[in-house]
Design goal:
It is built from 9 helices and 9 strands. The strands form 2 sheets. The protein has a 7-stranded parallel sheet. A two-stranded antiparallel sheet has the order 2-3. Helix 2 packs parallel to helix 4. It starts with a strand and ends with a helix. By secondary structure, the chain is α/β, with parallel strands linked by helices. Helices cover 38% and strands 15% of the residues. It has a single domain, classed as Metal-dependent hydrolases (TIM Barrel, Alpha-Beta Barrel).
């Protein structure tokens, strides 16, 4: 892996990894790391200003907010100023789809919520992380319907990929699925173990490992 995206983590009443910390990491390895910001969605005006700072001053390439941290679905009104600002700046919005590891409700990770968001914001590029399990078929249906929605495989090793995501990757989804690791939980090397077993065509391999991410994140 020659280039990776690293993300800030902002939760209610708690900044776990700040945007400035991410900026510091990126500054140490500017040829290897790309910043992804996060914001407090409960303060919409401050969130809008912070997104603009992340992009215009820090050079970040996307914004990421996790619905389960906020216990709110992606269709909640607090997300909409975030989406509008991402559209204005021409950057992707990253989120998590599927169940949660922590003991918090997984319902807000249902991929079908993205259907409404993609309808309301057809110009917003949306990346749903963590494959969407156990609603992977639902995630694929939304990605098939909406040109602006993509799935990434972060937090899953290839051995744990649901069969349907591999089928999608080999067929209609070769331009819609992005490789991810979720480091430090899973290292890129570990995430790619058994890669050859998927038997992807060379073009699909290139798109999955880097081509789709370069296009989606304008790298």
């Amino acid at each position: 892996v020659s280039k990776a995206l690293i993300s800030a983590w902002v939760a209610p009443r708690n900044i776990m990894i700040s945007n400035d910390e991410v900026f510091g990491f990126v500054n140490q390895f500017p040829d290897r790391l790309v910043g992804v910001g996060s914001v407090d969605i409960s303060r919409p005006m401050q969130a809008i200003a912070e997104i603009k700072r992340c992009v215009n001053e820090l050079g970040f390439k996307a914004i990421r907010v996790l619905p389960w941290l906020w216990e709110l679905p992606p269709t909640d009104r607090l997300f909409y100023p975030i989406y509008a600002t991402c559209c204005e700046l021409g950057i992707p919005f990253c989120t998590q789809i599927g169940h949660t590891g922590p003991l918090m409700s997984s319902e807000v990770g249902r991929p079908i919520y993205i259907d409404r968001v993609a309808i309301d914001f057809p110009d917003l590029v949306i990346v749903g992380g963590h494959i969407g399990y156990p609603w992977t078929e639902e995630a694929i249906a939304v990605a098939t319907k909406h040109r602006n929605f993509y799935i990434d495989t972060s937090a899953y090793t290839i051995k744990r990929y649901p069969p349907e995501i591999i089928r999608y990757l080999k067929t209609n989804g070769k331009k819609k699925v992005l490789f991810g690791s979720n480091y430090p939980m899973i290292t890129p090397k570990y995430a790619l173990e058994d890669f050859e077993a998927m038997a992807l065509e060379p073009e699909t391999q290139a798109l999955f490992l880097s081509g789709n991410a370069k296009r989606v994140f304008n790298l």
